[in-house]
Amino acid sequence: MATATIFDIQRYSIHDGPGIRTTVFLKGCPLSCRWCHNPEGQFGEPELIFRENRCGRCGACLTVCKHGAISWGSGAPGGTRGPGGAARDQRFHTSTPGGPVTNRTKCVRCGECTKVCFSGARELAGKQMSVAQVMSEVERDIPFYEESGGGVTLSGGEPLAQADFAADVLETSKRRGIHTTLDTCGFAEWSAVDLVRRHVDLFLYDLKLMDDARHRELTGVSNAGIIRNLSELARLGHNIVLRLPVIPSFNDDYESIRQIGAFAATLPHLISVDVLPYHKIGIEKYRRLGKLYSLAGLPLPPEEIMAGIAGILAGFGLAVNRRTRAD
Questions:
Q1: Most-buried pick from 19, 65, 164, 321 (CB within 10 A)?
Q2: Short-list 230, 148, 142, 152, CA closest to 186
């Protein structure tokens, strides 16, 4: 039976498609967007999450770690001083003041420390689940789907990175009368898109930039395939909502917006463009993963900029929805 690495299943979601939805988050993403608010979804394998405020300093994690990845801190603030008092790199060490220090370069993510952490400070983001296990969670909310016009949404990470599994969940959901939505960045071979598309009622499709060089700089990949897949889905008659995350100093200039608007206006069956302002909800997640967040000082987009962007897009005859959060 097919399995996939899932890092979260969020019930009663209202931001990931119509109605009340169950959103299944698949791990792994080919993009490396600096503003990503789901960093636990970027890497395809399970990762250790450490919530410092929950740590009881009991030391149980040290006793079960067979890889020497956990040790007692020196008692200095953050417990992150190395030999000779040199500061340790926060990308590779996670600590509690006066408590355990985790060296993530030694951690093999076996999860043994999470099993003995009764305070819930340690957990693994990501576990293998079968289609049947995912569907068991999804079907619990069928009464809410029926009342609200909701359903299941596959998100991530990037669900097309585990396309076979995604297709199985979507096909099973369709057979059971559940509305299906795919939240995607669109970066995949067409064969993966083609595999899932016939089981998708609605695509939530990210479009960040039209300029390829700039897209490579900000996400690590070309947008050529993203645009090509989007154009083909539209040509084939699929229902699509474009999602535009507005990131100050990255893609909030009006020329970039005009390029997106001109292209979006050529797409048949486009329902709307959702304009999503940058937010800082994900910053704490980076710290829990022992990762650096390079945009901590980036301001939120001002109201006048968001209004201007919506106006430019509407000027191309597009239906525009201004959301309160970015994806």
A1: 65
A2: 230
**For 71-103, what is each residue's pLDDT tens digit?**
987 653 333 333 333 334 444 556 566 688 999
Task: Compute CA distances 125 → 71, 210, 269, 287, whole Å.
Answer: 22, 33, 36, 14
Do 85 and 151 touch, CB atoms closer than 8 A? no
Of 123, 151, 174, the residue that ends a domain is: 123
Element (DSSP H or E) covering residue 175: helix 163-175
Tell me the angle at which helices 254-264 and 303-314 cross, rounded to the nearest 10 degrees. Answer: 30
Tokens read off for 312: 């430019």
| Cβ proximity of 195 and 45 under 8 Å | no
| Range 231-236 contact pairs with CB under 8 angstroms and sequence separation of 24 or more | 231/267, 232/190, 232/193, 233/193, 233/197, 233/203, 233/205, 234/267, 234/268, 234/269, 234/270, 235/268, 236/197
Domains: count for the chain: 2
Q: Which domain, by its residues, includes 30?
A: 3-44+127-322
**Rounded distance, CA 279 to CA 75, Å?**
34
- Whether residues 251 and 159 fall in one domain: yes
CB 28 within 8 A of CB 44: yes
Burial 11-25 (b: 16+ CB within 10 A, else e): eebebbbbbbbbbbb
Give per-residue pLDDT as tens, 229-261. Answer: 999 999 999 999 999 999 999 999 999 999 999
At 45 the three-state DSSP class reads coil
CB proximity list for 189: less than 8 A, separation 6 or greater: 225
pTM score of the predicted model: 0.89
Point out which residues pair with 130 in neighbouring strands.
3
* Whether 137 and 33 share a structural domain: yes
